[in-house]
Amino acid sequence: MIYYSYDHFRTDVQALREACEPFGADTILAVARGGVTIGHALSMALNIRNFQSIRCESYDDTTQRAHVSVRGECDFGCSKRVLIVDDIVDSGETLHSLIPLLQTRYPHVLFASASLFTKPTALVQPDFSLHEAHDWIDFFWERDFLKADSL
User: Fold this and answer.
1) DSSP letter assigned to residue 150
2) CA–CA dist 92, 97 (Å, integer)
3) 3.40.50.2020, 3.40.50.1820, 3.40.50.1360, 2.60.40.1930: which CATH number matches 2-67+93-150?
4) What span, in angstroms and rounded, lies between the C-alpha atoms of 137 and 124?
5) Cα–Cα dist 111/81, whole Å
6) pLDDT tens, residue order, the chain (151 aa)
7) 0.70 cut: is pTM over it?
């Protein structure tokens, strides 16, 4: 297991901003929950005020589900380029399920995806990613805000 600290995150947000900037997104879509922290940070770094989230679940704790559930709606009526953001692309099932669904619902929108970490074996690779993951990542937002008796 690898601990991913806030200091590492702060540096990575700037690197991911630089990588994603040429896409020219006008909307950030964070995959809840893992993508919300990086999505918010990227929306600030890229100065994109249209920040939305959608709930996709492919894991129960550390066990992968058989099917991804997608919950929630987006308003992309004025959007032209949407950057889908998640903390890690592990199996790739989330993006594999989410992107075709969004493309069907919003054919006028161009979608791209970004993550901090990607496993090389993922079914779908994001358009922008910083690190290859080989171990379980313990993100600071998953650990640092737990009650002491939860650790």
Assistant:
1) G
2) 9
3) 3.40.50.2020
4) 19
5) 6
6) 999 999 999 999 999 999 999 999 999 999 998 899 999 999 999 999 999 999 887 655 666 656 667 767 899 999 999 999 999 999 898 899 899 999 999 999 999 999 999 999 999 999 999 999 999 899 998 887 776 665 5
7) yes
Pair type for strands 110-118 and 128-132: parallel
Secondary structure (3-state) at 1: coil
The token duo for 134 is 């080989």
117 bridge partner residues: 88, 131
Task: Provide the token pair at 51.
Answer: 């920040």
Adjacency order of strands within the sheet including 110-118 = 63-71, 51-60, 27-32, 81-89, 110-118, 128-132
What is the end-to-end Cα distance of the chain in Å, rounded? 15
**Residue 48: what residue type?**
I
Residues 134, 146: contact at Cβ < 8 Å?
no
Position 105: which residue type? R
Query: How far is it, in rounded angstroms, from Cα 29 to Cα 39?
Result: 7
